[in-house]
Design the sequence.
């Protein structure tokens, strides 16, 4: 734990040195001594302390200073740190001012200058005050603090990013926490730009991009080398498995992930059908294990970096990142998976992050404890979500357009849901509109057979309405099927026995696209069966094809 601060303020350099010396002499082990030569300097130090989550235990301030008097300064400092002890250093002539400030600003004590010897005239007073302060002191969270508004989409996205990258943080709700609100206003001059990310060291970040945030919290965002044998695009199960096998086979391997390792699986509240985990495993846990495993064998992982293009410059493949940088390699694996389909109904887009969420939003679910939430979708991800929310919510209403869950959900989940008294499944029902001003207050639902509509009050709406392949970026490079999934190996359309545009006198390897050296695996690949185990299997198996390819370059 960082040491609380003792802040000494005096405009007389001699006196300030003496105060600092005596304070360090006695308190340096448990407190950090900070000094300031004026009221203005002390206030600036206070704002910086607050931004860094440092806590002052005591202010020792000279009364008679040019500009701002000690009493005036303590009145200001009290606004920042109401719990800190306040001591005024005075000359005899200032006694009245000191006594008056006991009522005015809640002064804890005043001490006459000079205070020599400190053992008799300084330490006993400060020891008592610090003991009283420590009795009340609750050490603040020392990591990253995120100050924002509960219904802000930007704040929700930063929370999700930190949670999914397993970066611990403390959430400060500026609507409920006056101190956090004041801090944000002091840092940004208002509440328009949120969130404000506060760090133990260095200046805060205001409404940062994922890349700015990733760089600041120490996640790798820039490749260490200009060239790799293999670059893996996407850090879901397929990409992580491929990176692990690439590294264990001795290939220099770089994995580039635009959001957080784990992909879709990383958002799952509990994966119960992945081999080797009899009690199931949370997506976050699986992501952390797989990332650690790949790194252990030397794979390099970049986060918050999107691959926006791949160029063919035989024998190299040039991978372009969203920040404009490029990295070269021999082989590329596209493991970009799928992204959520959006629901086209009035009010949905506007309320995303303010009660409406795509996917399980594990970071948000607990904040709907004891409330009614709705889940849209009939596949496994929706089923898992409903089981997860049933632990917090008073009621979970599942809305499915089909006649029931049988058509799209695994048996184990259907049986589980049937045992949950607070989960209701509504077949032939869809969302017609999301209702609410600043945040979701309810939904208008429509019965798809009768067209009848009703309003359902609910605090949150979790959408699992299907997914589409993450392949747009590479549409000009690789062959895709009519739904956008990437075609590979034997699935590639052929002309005169060879894939269109294929110039080599060999067939494409398994998982190889129509571009030699560019492979695809996992959910983005046409024909994949969209399960964690399958993605891991494809990612691992693709390394064999990649090695065969590398033997040809
Ligand atoms: C909520 C939920 C629960 C699920 N539960 C289960 C379950 O219990 N059991 C099961 O077997 N399956 C489950 N699935 C399905 C499973 O998660 C997927 O089949 C699996 O994650 C697919 O892995 P993938 O690596 O192919 O793709 P993804 O997991 O989709 O990962 C692709 C990654 O690529 C990144 N990316 C995309 N484009 C780019 C780019 N241009 N640059 C950089 N990075 C990029 C994405 O950000 C993403 O992280 C679930 C899915 C969801 C959504």
Sequence:
């Amino acid at each position: 734990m960082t040491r609380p601060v003792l802040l000494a303020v005096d405009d007389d350099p001699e006196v300030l040195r003496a105060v600092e010396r005596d304070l360090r002499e006695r308190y340096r082990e448990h407190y950090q001594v900070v000094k300031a030569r004026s009221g203005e300097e002390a206030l600036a130090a206070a704002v910086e302390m607050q931004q860094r989550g440092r806590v002052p235990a005591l202010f020792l301030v000279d009364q008679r200073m040019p500009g701002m008097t000690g009493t005036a300064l303590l009145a200001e400092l009290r606004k920042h740190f109401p719990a800190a002890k306040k001591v005024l250093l005075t000359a005899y002539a200032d006694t009245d001012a000191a006594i008056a400030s006991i009522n005015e600003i809640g002064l804890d004590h005043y001490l006459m200058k000079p205070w020599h010897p400190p053992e008799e005239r300084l330490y006993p007073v400060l020891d008592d005050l610090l003991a009283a302060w420590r009795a009340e002191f609750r050490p603040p969270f020392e990591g990253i603090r995120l100050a924002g508004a509960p219904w802000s989409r930007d704040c929700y996205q930063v929370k999700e990013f930190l949670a999914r990258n397993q970066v611990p943080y403390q959430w400060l709700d500026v609507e409920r926490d006056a101190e956090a609100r004041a801090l944000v206003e002091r840092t940004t001059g208002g509440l328009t730009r949120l969130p404000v990310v506060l760090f133990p060291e260095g200046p805060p970040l205001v409404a940062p991009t994922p890349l700015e945030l990733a760089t600041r919290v120490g996640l790798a965002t820039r490749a260490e080398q200009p060239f790799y044998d293999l670059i893996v695009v996407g850090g879901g199960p397929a990409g992580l498995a491929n990176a692990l096998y690439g590294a264990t086979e001795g290939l220099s391997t770089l994995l580039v992930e635009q959001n957080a390792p784990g992909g879709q699986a990383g958002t799952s509240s509990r994966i119960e059908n992945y081999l080797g985990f009899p009690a199931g495993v949370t997506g976050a846990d699986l992501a952390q294990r797989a990332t650690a495993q790949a790194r252990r064998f030397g794979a390099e992982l970049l986060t918050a970096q999107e691959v926006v293009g791949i160029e063919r410059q035989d024998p190299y493949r040039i991978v372009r990142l969203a920040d404009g940088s490029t990295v070269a390699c021999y082989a590329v694996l596209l493991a970009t998976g799928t992204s959520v389909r959006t629901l086209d109904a009035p009010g949905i887009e506007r309320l995303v992050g303010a009660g409406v969420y795509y996917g399980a939003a594990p970071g948000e679910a607990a904040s709907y404890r004891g409330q009614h939430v709705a889940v849209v979708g009939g596949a496994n991800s929706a089923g898992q979500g409903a089981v997860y929310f049933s632990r917090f919510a008073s009621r979970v209403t599942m809305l499915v357009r089909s006649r029931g869950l049988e058509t799209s959900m695994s048996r184990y989940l259907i049986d589980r849901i049937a045992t949950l008294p607070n989960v209701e499944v509504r077949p032939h029902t869809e969302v017609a509109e999301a209702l609410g001003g600043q945040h979701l207050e309810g939904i208008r639902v429509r019965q798809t057979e009768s067209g009848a509509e009703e309003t359902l009050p609910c605090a949150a709406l979790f959408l699992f309405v299907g997914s589409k392949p993450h392949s747009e970026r590479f549409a000009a490079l690789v062959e895709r099927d009519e739904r956008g999934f990437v075609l590979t190996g034997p699935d590639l359309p052929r002309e005169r026995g060879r894939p269109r545009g294929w110039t080599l006198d060999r067939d494409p390897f398994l998982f190889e696209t129509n571009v030699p050296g560019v492979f695809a695996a996992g959910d983005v690949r046409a024909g994949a069966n969209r399960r964690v185990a399958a993605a891991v299997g494809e990612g691992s198996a693709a390394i064999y094809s990649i090695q065969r390819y590398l033997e040809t370059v």
The first strand starts at residue 5 and ends at 9. The mean pLDDT is 92. The first helix runs from residue 13 to 27. Residues 233-239, 256-259, 263-265, 267-268, 271, 273, 306-307, 335-338, 359-360, 380-381, 384, 470, 473, 522-523, 530-533, 535 surround flavin-adenine dinucleotide (CB under 6 Å).
